[in-house]
Amino acid sequence: MKPTRLALLALSLLAVGCKEAIVDPPGDPTAVGKPFVSSGYVRLMVNELQVDVDSLGGIGFIPLQGRGPKQYFPVGDTSISVIYQSGLWLSATQNGQPRANLVWGHPSPGNYTNRWGGRSLGVFYVTADSLLGNRTGWPTAYGAPTQPGGNPIHQVPVMYGDAMAWSALRSDSSAVSRGLEEVLTAPIEGIRVTQAVYGYRQADAKNAIFVRYQITNQSAAPLTDVYVGYMSDTDLQDATNLTGYDSSRALTYTYNYIGNSLPLNRSRYVAGYTFLGTPDENGYNIGVRSHRKMRKSAVDTEFGVETIHTPLQVRYALQGLSNTGQPMVNPTTGQVTTFAFTGDPTAGTGWLDTPPQDVRSLLGSGPFALAPGETKGLTMVWIARVGTDRADALSKLRDDVDHVRSTPELWDFLRF
What mean pLDDT is predicted for residues 229-256? Predict the structure, then answer.
């Protein structure tokens, strides 16, 4: 397949500690073609997927659109969606204490904020047309991507993909405990996370959305035992989903249960994500280290998402351990593992998720360290697929992941 054109030939420059005033340009956050705008959320509609990105780091509500001449997602299946809510999880030791930042989901948004200098920075939506010739209002001081060289305050803004939603988040030190979620009250102090959600119009990336994070330690204290992960509440249809993990591709995916209450054509849909680039430690890319069981449950003390209450439990989850720090055991082999649901749902072999439920998924990477002022990154891709049946859909999903991984100009801007 012909290589795709590159949307960016630069690294993000990080102006740590810069006190430039926040520019909050007016406008409709869903309008296409206007200069980049800032608001509570933006809607990215660059290809077959529709992505809502909110101002607190949440990514969600991605229905399969079925737009275009080929009706990629067939008419009549418009109720299929991909993500209800998803976002970045972080765990670190700071001044000897475990701390954590996370997009928690509804109704609790988590402990990130986009307020800087007393004002909301918002989410910036850009296309090639809106970016062309514009410099005013681009949040360079907060890590927005620019062309390299020169004075960072006046550099030329650049973007990823054909449309991008960009934001800068930091720890919300005023977050309060909602119910028993004490984890929200102990964020990592001085952390900054920039989030770029982007996509391409071209045929070989029409069902993919990319997310690039850069994590900066702006505190005076080193961060150790840092783990990073991505948690998703994936809804292909109500609560009839199952989760799998393709260990050869480090790919977590969600598929529909085939039951009497589920139209058979719904089994043709799958959606999944993988990390394309993870933080480095001692010169080596860490890679994916865990795929943990995640249950929507307020009573499952081992694997319930709602029973994660402390920063230490966030670390356990990102390490592939239970909420109480116990290892997972593959029931088909009896072996301790950090990777759940590695079986083959097409053949019905190996460790399979059961029963169908409102699933969650979590990929984890780490550990690594962040010195004061240091930045490390994470890049991932979301892909949704439909096939003639489940086996065909999974095959296409795996082929798409292989293609994206072997086309680094789509996402590896350190090399291109």
Answer: 90
